[in-house]
Amino acid sequence: MHVDQAIGGLRDVLVHSGVWDKALVILLADHGEGLGDHGETSHGYFIYESTMHVPLIVHWPVGAAKFPERIAQPGGLIDVAPTILDFLHIAAPPSFEGASLLPGHGDRTPYGESVYPQENFGWAALRSLQSGSINTSMRPKPSFMTC
Length: 147
Fold this sequence. Notes:
Low-confidence stretches: none
Structural class: alpha+beta
Helix content: 10-25%
Oligomer: single chain
Radius of gyration: 18 Å
Strand content: 15-25%
Shape: globular
Distance between the termini: 28 Å
């Protein structure tokens, strides 16, 4: 509930100051939460959808182009900065590896990893690539999972 109150407070301040309608507000997290899925009570060990799925919420300024409320295509945190620059009509630097999430920028294949088990226990790192509903897990014994 604390996060909801903090976000609501931010919105209230922006509304009362007259900035909300002009603001581009982006809310995101750096990871999902296992919440007991697959026996993981936290996050960091595994690369299941529950820990890899990250919320991304965008409030577009009033009068901005109409973008879909939801996109089914996977994206990654690496795509957030290029999306902001694309919205502002600023070219992304060549060093950026992500791609804009706005329409017209093609398919993405997000990469994910968990190196926590490797760094803390000497176990193998877990890595994944996601394309559509297929999540390819790269670990000592490769496997394919549907999301």
